Amino acid sequence: MAQDNDTDDKPAQRISGRARIILLVAALVLVVGGAFWFAYHQMRGKYYEETNDAEIRADMVTVAPRIAGYVSQVLVSDNQDVKAGQPLLRIDARDYEARQAQADAQIAVARAAADNVRATISEQLATIDQTRAQLAQARAKAAYDAAEVARYAPLVETGAEKREQLAQLRATATQSAAQVRAQEAALAVQQRRVGTLESQIRQSDAQAQGARAQRASANVDVNATLVRAASDGRIGDKTVTMGQFVQPGMRLMSIVPLDKIYVVANFKETQLGLIRPGQPATISVDALGGTELHGKVASIMPGTGAQFSILPPENATGNFTKIVQRVPVRIELDASPEARRLLVPGLSVTATVDTISARDAGARIKDAQARTAAKAN
User: Which residue, 161, 208, 261, 266, has fewest beta-carbon neighbours within 10 Å?
Assistant: First the structure.
């Protein structure tokens, strides 16, 4: 019986020894794995900052009309891809075309009035030339009559000529002088009339210029009846229908530029110390089954998300509770066209930023602060 018991104890001892070896190997694996993990964490792992408070965004373009009117035609549908300059909808242009025609008519009237005044000025200049010729004749006659009076006056004094003849000559000279003054006055009136007519031309030209400005404005409005896409993208949030009356600035649809999507990741303030623009980032997209995309940090918002909210928090009321703030970080994506077709704004992602390039930033900041404090002392 004792021999049987010894025989039974030997397998148990062998099992215990084997379990002990397994435990030792497992412990060794754990220790080595832990050491490797600790070394990796110290050298690389601790420099990865990750957040799942991130989403894909795009700078969407709101499509709104410049003019008011009834929509006569909608040329796109929901979720349709469009190119920059592609027509999206058309507004009834008849009212604006009528204003265009009215401006054309005003331009024609102003031009006709200016041409009529120019013709009148030409006639007036011819009349002025004729009056000047008559004035020259009147002056010549007045000079002759004055010379005759001067010649006859001594003869009358000597009795060689009759006084009646001298009186008649003086009357004729007076009449000639009056004729000269009348012609001069007529010439002055005619010259002033030319100035008045020229001012009428300037007025007509100004009216024509105003009509041309109205015509240009009408052209802009007519062109604005055809609403075009401002950029490449995909139509979304389309609310406009044919026959709808629209106003300037009314939101009709949006264009989402899917080739310009980016990620906004809201990192905690405790994670922000080493994040810098230009650092590489990895984006895990939930919608793609965790597929990882690559990108880089583009910029960091100059304030927390709360500071840019409609009602920023006011902590001076005495009811302060400290919570960790988050700062939005913009990450530009380096994604293939196939991936971009599947990514749309609003999708949740997980963003990881490699901050190892700034690992010495904290030490540099402390050194700079110490030097500043030393100078201050």
Answer: 161
Q: Is residue 124 part of a domain?
A: yes
The total number of residues shown for the chain amounts to: 377
* Number of domain units in the chain: 2
Pair 214, 233 in one domain: no
Q: Which domain holds residue 216?
A: 96-224
Tokens of 208: 């024509």
Closest CA to 112 of 19, 232, 208, 190: 208
- Distance in angstroms (rounded) separating the CA atoms of residues 293 and 313: 35
Q: Do 146 and 189 fall into the same domain?
A: yes
Would you say residue 267 lies in a domain? Answer: no
Burial class (CB in 10 A: 0-12, 13-18, 19+), 304: middle
Q: Could you report the per-residue pLDDT of 223-277, keeping only the tens digit for each? A: 999 999 999 999 999 999 999 999 999 999 999 998 889 999 999 998 888 899 9
DSSP 311: S
Whether 119 is in a domain gets the answer yes
φ and ψ of 33, to 5 deg:
-60, -45
Q: Is the pTM of this model over 0.70?
A: no
Cα gap 117→125, rounded to integer Å: 12
- Cβ 246 vs Cβ 240: under 8 Å: yes
